[in-house]
Amino acid sequence: MTAGKRSWGAGIWFSQATPKFAFMAWITMKDRLATMDRVFGWCQGVDTTCVLCNNAPESRNHLFFDCSFSSQLWEHLTRGFLHSSFSTNWDAVVRLIIAPGMEKQKRLCLRYAFQTTLYKLWRERNKRRHGERALPLQVLSKLTDKAIHNKLSLLQSKRVKGHILQYCFSTRL
Ligand SMILES: [Zn+2]
Q1: 61 C-alpha to center of ligand 1: Å?
Q2: CA of 107 to the centre of ligand 1 (A)
Q3: 118 CA to centre of ligand 1 in angstroms
Q4: Measured between alpha carbons, how far is 5 from 158 in angstroms, rounded to an integer?
Q5: How far is it, in rounded angstroms, from Cα 153 to Cα 87?
Q6: Contact present, 105 and 16 (Cβ < 8 Å)
Q7: pLDDT by position in tens, the chain (length 173)
């Protein structure tokens, strides 16, 4: 395992992570999700259009977060505390997640928002691909907020240092 891989592993398998979210983030980091650009490699003729925006071919980097649908969710969750380092570019986001020296609360908000967003977007994508009714962005935003809020409340009740919940949510745009 290279040093690079070890460091992005730390950005995912941190002690407060939710295992199913962390696992999904791990697969995504390795670009092993069955996104349509990869599916096309073994099954030509499939429709590769992104089902979240219906406006571009689907790939890992498109879904996270070049997509006009995904990028709005990501912006809602993180721009308020990332300020000028906010980005929708996959490589830039990953760099930020493993960057040394980020303040602890901010890092936990970012890492947790990252894996929760990946999980929620991928699940929504799968539902749409299987013909289920699309959730509007506002609803998905609320559900993602709620998942993050619940997790952080739990951490706070275990007396994790600092007011992480307040920090993450007071900075929402
Ligand atoms: Zn899209």
Answers
A1: 10
A2: 27
A3: 13
A4: 30
A5: 27
A6: no
A7: 444 555 677 788 877 788 899 999 999 999 999 999 999 988 888 999 999 999 999 999 999 999 999 999 999 999 999 999 999 999 999 999 998 888 888 898 899 999 999 999 999 999 999 999 999 999 999 999 999 988 888 777 666 555 777 777 777 75
Amino acid of residue 44: Q
> How far from chain centre, in Å, is Cα 38?
20
- CA–CA distance, 88 with 170 (Å, rounded to integer): 21
Question: Considering the entire predicted model, what is its pTM?
Answer: 0.89
User: Within 13 Å of residue 165, how many CA atoms lie on the same side as its CB?
Assistant: 15
Question: 112 with 152: CB under 8 angstroms?
Answer: yes
User: CA angle at residue 65 from 141 to 30, to 5 degrees?
Assistant: 115
Q: Which tokens sit at 94?
A: 């990953």
Instruction: List Cα–Cα distances, 90 to 58, 62, 66, 110, 127, in angstroms.
Output: 14, 9, 8, 14, 23
Cα 70 to middle of ligand 1, angstroms:
7
